[in-house]
Each structure stands twice: as structure tokens, then as C-alpha cells.
């Protein structure tokens, strides 16, 4: 028999208890038996010891076992290796279910012959086969031949990737995958020099470039999906493989993209580059650095304990008590002076804390101040073993003192310093500056930023705000990333507008002694951000024209780019 149908007894009603049914299927020599289930519901058990199907590759009870099946998940298509198959259905005396329905047929592996016609690969399927192609090729419309395609496997140390037909319009319905593979311990850097795809770089549901680092056989790290006309950021792989996939739909076509790539050995990947503390990979080399409280040795790899006065200007980092994680020494006086970007506040989070305890922290302790010296506003004094809550300064500076006496020593502390955007800014007659994020100029702003600054002048003064640089994600209604400015201390005051894109907003003057500057970003695209200058102006210095529309000032701000 070449084809037929099998069902459990009484199907589709519940099968009977204490049954044993055996089917022996044979097809002509040279063929295989294929079995496809249409429905499957047999009493479930992890080891299928109650009700089950026993399927074997041959007619004998001791023929090679293909599998034992039960439960409610329909088995995948099953094939024998010969022209015979044995199926045994067994039920016990308790639970009954609906059973199964299946079709058997003779199956021939067309891919085993030489006349399947596939140029590259033949994939056998029940009742037929299909052809597929190697990376860098695509299947011809005849379903058999393979033709050159965009994409492919690249193992060169450097090179160029372009969309199909670049710089002409790329074709519709195109799928291209490039996989750049570097030697082990190398990283790949990809830099786009031209980018013009359909879309607005939000959903990228039409045409897109998808970039991922390949970290293992199936694990990937997504760098982003890009479309529109904005150049994607420079991307460096996390491993030695980078996958770039280009897709176009069946409608709008653009000029596409061009990108250059190069590979560089990550010296830090082996033994931390020989650095005692921190290794940072650079193009063609690497550099060692030390944790706070240590200085780099003359050999440029080891770290030695530094002095006990620390001036910290990096937006993010760690600090430690002397000798941490060993006990701190006695009679030690140390200070940390933190300074970050104007418009951002220092935040200190302690991860470990263990000092000599005392009710008033008279002996060993740390003390924090909201400014540049111990004469500034007092933020707190801490000792003992209880980890302090996160401490946030009111402005962009913080001063910390560590003191130990001559007796008890403990492990000390380990803390992380970061920055928090927003807060209060004091406007005076001296021009001051503010920035969208603490790493402005070094990297793009972060996603999901939520920042409010209140710029306050003295009563009887107005705040004059001038944006010097401005580059935010662009959108018609500024619904993604934006800056909005309100007159007064809250968003209930008049709004001067919501701003995004690359157009620098006009100068803004408050109608009272304060401005609220709000900065919001979504969870996708981030760009350079903004910088601004602000100054307090006495009301009598404001000069209005007769219509009251324009205001002129005796201040000028230099816009640096």
C-alpha cells in the first residue's frame, strides 16, 4: 500500500481502556514510510508509561525504536529508513483520551538522487523537496538555480559594504545578509558614510538595516535597526562577528547606504591586557588605567596607591577607602572633590560600607558636603556597618571627607559615583552654561531621559536662555525626544514651545524670575543633545519695541560647534 489513514480505536471519541493495537506498514522497495499526524491526544506522562504509541523502523518488535509518544503535542513528521514501519498503540485501564489520527505514505528522498536539479542545496520534504542557496546567493525564479546576490561572508580585515546598485536606487523586495568574521580576539568597527533608506528611523517597518553582534551559535546582541536619512552611529562588535541585514519592501526606493569596516585586535580580551586594574581597547593598541585612589606605575600596567586627595571629574566611576578591600589604615585623612557637567548633580551610591561604629560617628567616619569644601552645605556623616542611602548633591559639585582615628580599623567602603540630570540652577549676572547630559561632547545622550531644570534669578530679574548647540531626534510634532521651556517654576506656566531636530530655538526670556527647562527622550534614537547659556537680567535692562514683540539685550553668546 502506498498511502493510507490510521486512527486510534473509536476515534474521534475516547479510545477504549486496556487496548493493544499493532499496525505494520510496508511500501514498495526503494521507498521509505512517512507518517504525518493530524491530531494527537493521549494520556500524558513524562516517560509515557500509561497510554502511548511505540513506533519502530521495521516490522519486528525489536526493530530500531524511532520514538515513544504520548501527551497532547502533535509529533513532527516521522520517516523510516527502510520501506517498513511498525506502530503499536497501548492503553491502560484508567484515563482515556481522544487518541490520534494520522496519514502514512510512501516517501522518496529526492535529494539522494543526482537529478534533483538544485545548484547548491537540496532539502527533502514529505512529498517533495526544495532548493536553497549559500550565503551570498539567492534562489532563481526557477526554484533550482542560484544567482549572485548582495550579502555574503566576509573575512577581509577591512573593506566596504554598499546596498545593491549603490549609488543608484536599490531594488524592491531585496534581502541581503553580510556576515563579517574577524580572527578570535578581534573586534569589527562599522562606519556608515552614506545612508538613505525609506522610513523615519522609528519603526523601520518598510526598508531597514539590522545590525547585530554574533556571540555564539545562536546568541546575538542587537545594535539597532536603522532607516531614514540619518547616519547610524559608529558600531563596534562585541565579538569577532558582525551581521548586517538589509531589507527592502515592494514600494519606495532610495539610494541606499555605503559603509566601511575594519578589524582591530582587542588586546584587553586576553589577561586584561596585562593591566592590573582596567584595560581599555583603542584602535591599534590599548591603555591601562587605575581605580580611584591609585596611580599608574611607570611600567604603564601596574597600579600603586596614590595620595589621599582625589579630584574627580569623570561622570561615572568608583571610589574606595584606602587599602580596600583590606582594612583601612589608622590616622588617615582623605578627601574626594567631585565635579561634573553644569546642570547635573553628583549621585553617590555605596555598595559596601563597614567602619568603626559610634552613635555620633566621632571616630572613623565619612562626611559629605554640597559644594567644594567642608564649609559647604552639610549632606551627612556616616559610620558603622549600615550602608547609607544614595546621596545626591544639589548641584554639580560634592565634597567628601574620610577620617580614621588611631584605634579600630574596618574594611571601609566601595561606592559608585554617577550623575543625575535636572535640579536647580542659579542665574546671576555672570553667564553660565548647562548641557543636556553629563557626557555631552563625548557621546550621545541616553534613552529614556527625564530631566527638569529650574533656572532661578533674584526677584525683579528675568532669566535669559540661549541655546548654543541643538541636535535632537527629529519628528514633526516633537513626540519622541524634545526640549520644552516654561516660564515659572512648573509646567503650569506659559510654554515657549516644544523643540526637537537640528534647528536652534530662538532666545527665550522669562516673564518672571524663573524658567523650567524640560528634556525628555524615548527609548530609541539618541543624538548629540544640546548646550545652552543662561544669565539673569534686571527688568529695567529689558528694552521692548513699541509693539512689545521683540526684546533686545546687551549680552552676546558665542555658539561653538
SS summary, helix count: 0
Q: Order of strands side by side in the largest beta sheet?
A: 13-15-20-17-18
- Give the averaged pLDDT, no decimals: 88
How does the helix and strand content classify structurally? mainly beta
Q: Tell me the Rg in angstroms.
A: 35 Å
The end-to-end distance, rounded to whole angstroms, is: 82 Å
CATH topology term of the largest domain: Jelly Rolls
Shape: elongated
Quaternary form: single chain
CATH class division of the largest domain? Mainly Beta
Strand content: over 45%
How many structural domains can be distinguished in the coordinates? 6
Number of strands: 45
* CATH H level, superfamily name of the largest domain: Spermadhesin, CUB domain
Do you know the CATH architecture of the largest domain? Sandwich
Please bin the fraction of helical residues.
Answer: under 10%
Described by strand count, sense and barrel closure, the largest sheet is: 5 strands, mixed
Low-confidence stretches: 544-561
Domain CUB: 1-107, 150-264, 308-420, 421-537
GO molecular function, one term: metalloendopeptidase activity
Domain EGF-like: 107-147, 264-304
Protein name: Bone morphogenetic protein 1
Give your account of this protein's structure:
The protein has 561 residues and is mainly beta. The strands form 13 sheets. The chain has a five-stranded mixed beta sheet with strand order 13-15-20-17-18, with no helix packed on it. It has a five-stranded mixed beta sheet with strand order 26-28-33-30-31, with no helix packed on it. A five-stranded mixed beta sheet has the order 35-37-42-39-40, with no helix packed on it. β24 and β25 (303-305) form a beta hairpin. One of its GO terms (molecular function) is calcium ion binding. Keywords: Developmental protein, Disulfide bond, EGF-like domain, Glycoprotein, Hydrolase, Metal-binding, Repeat, Signal, Zinc, Zymogen.
Amino acid at each position: 500500500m502506498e498511502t493510507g489513514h490510521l486512527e486510534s480505536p473509536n476515534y474521534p471519541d475516547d479510545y477504549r481502556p486496556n487496548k493493544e493495537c499493532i499496525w505494520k506498514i510496508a511500501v514498495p522497495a526503494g521507498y521509505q514510510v512517512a507518517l504525518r499526524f493530524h491530531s494527537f491526544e493521549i494520556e500524558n506522562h513524562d516517560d509515557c508509561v500509561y497510554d502511548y504509541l511505540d513506533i519502530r523502523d521495521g516490522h519486528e518488535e525489536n526493530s530500531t525504536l524511532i520514538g515513544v509518544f504520548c501527551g497532547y503535542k502533535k509529533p513532527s513528521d516521522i520517516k523510516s529508513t527502510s520501506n517498513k514501519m511498525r506502530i503499536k498503540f497501548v492503553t491502560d485501564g484508567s484515563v482515556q483520551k481522544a487518541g490520534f489520527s494520522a496519514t502514512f505514505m510512501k516517501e522518496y528522498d529526492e535529494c539522494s538522487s543526482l537529478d534533483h536539479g538544485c545548484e547548491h542545496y537540496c532539502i527533502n520534504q514529505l512529498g517533495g523537496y526544495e532548493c536553497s542557496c549559500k550565503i551570498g546567493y539567492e534562489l532563481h525564479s526557477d526554484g533550482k538555480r542560484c544567482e549572485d546576490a548582495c550579502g555574503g561572508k566576509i573575512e577581509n580585515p577591512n573593506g566596504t559594504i554598499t546596498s545593491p546598485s549603490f549609488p543608484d536606487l536599490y531594488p524592491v523586495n531585496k534581502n541581503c545578509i553580510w556576515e563579517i568574521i574577524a580572527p578570535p580576539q578581534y573586534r569589527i568597527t562599522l562606519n556608515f558614510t552614506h545612508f538613505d533608506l525609506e522610513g523615519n528611523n522609528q519603526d523601520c517597518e518598510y526598508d531597514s538595516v539590522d545590525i547585530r553582534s554574533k556571540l555564539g551559535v545562536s546568541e546575538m546582541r542587537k545594535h539597532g535597526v536603522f532607516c531614514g536619512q540619518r547616519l547610524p552611529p559608529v558600531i563596534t562588535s562585541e565579538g569577532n562577528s558582525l551581521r548586517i541585514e538589509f531589507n527592502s519592501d515592494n514600494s519606495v526606493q532610495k539610494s541606499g547606504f555605503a559603509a566601511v569596516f575594519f578589524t582591530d585586535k582587542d588586546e584587553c580580551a586576553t589577561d586584561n591586557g596585562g593591566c592590573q586594574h582596567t584595560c581599555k581597547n583603542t584602535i591599534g593598541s590599548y591603555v591601562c588605567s587605575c581605580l580611584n585612589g591609585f596611580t599608574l606605575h611607570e611600567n604603564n600596567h601596574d597600579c600603586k596607591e596614590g595620595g589621599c586627595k582625589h579630584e574627580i571629574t569623570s561622570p561615572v566611576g568608583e571610589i574606595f577607602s584606602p587599602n580596600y578591600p583590606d582594612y583601612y589604615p589608622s590616622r588617615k585623612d582623605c578627601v574626594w572633590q567631585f565635579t561634573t557637567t553644569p546642570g547635573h548633580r553628583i549621585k553617590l551610591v555605596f555598595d559596601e560600607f563597614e567602619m568603626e561604629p559610634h552613635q555620633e560617628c566621632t571616630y572613623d567616619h565619612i562626611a559629605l558636603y554640597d559644594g567644594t569644601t567642608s564649609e559647604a552645605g552639610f549632606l551627612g556623616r556616616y559610620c558603622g556597618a549600615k550602608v547609607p542611602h544614595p546621596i545626591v548633591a544639589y548641584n554639580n559639585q560634592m565634597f567628601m571627607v574620610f577620617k580614621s582615628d588611631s584605634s579600630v580599623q574596618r574594611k571601609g567602603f566601595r561606592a559608585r559615583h554617577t550623575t543625575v540630570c535636572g535640579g536647580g540652577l542659579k542665574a546671576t549676572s555672570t553667564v553660565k552654561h548647562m548641557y543636556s547630559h553629563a557626557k555631552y561632547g563625548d557621546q550621545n545622550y541616553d534613552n529614556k531621559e527625564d530631566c527638569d531644570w529650574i533656572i532661578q534669578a533674584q526677584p525683579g530679574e528675568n532669566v535669559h536662555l540661549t541655546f548654543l548647540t541643538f541636535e535632537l531626534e527629529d519628528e514633526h510634532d516633537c513626540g519622541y525626544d524634545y526640549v520644552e521651556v516654561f516660564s515659572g517654576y512648573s509646567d503650569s506656566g506659559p510654554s515657549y514651545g516644544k523643540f526637537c531636530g537640528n534647528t536652534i530655538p530662538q532666545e527665550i526670556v522669562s516673564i518672571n524670575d524663573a524658567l523650567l527647562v524640560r528634556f525628555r527622550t524615548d527609548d530609541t534614537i539618541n543624538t548629540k543633545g544640546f548646550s545652552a547659556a543662561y544669565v539673569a537680567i534686571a527688568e529695567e535692562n529689558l528694552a521692548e519695541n513699541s509693539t512689545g514683540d521683540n526684546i533686545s539685550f546687551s549680552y552676546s553668546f558665542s555658539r561653538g560647534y
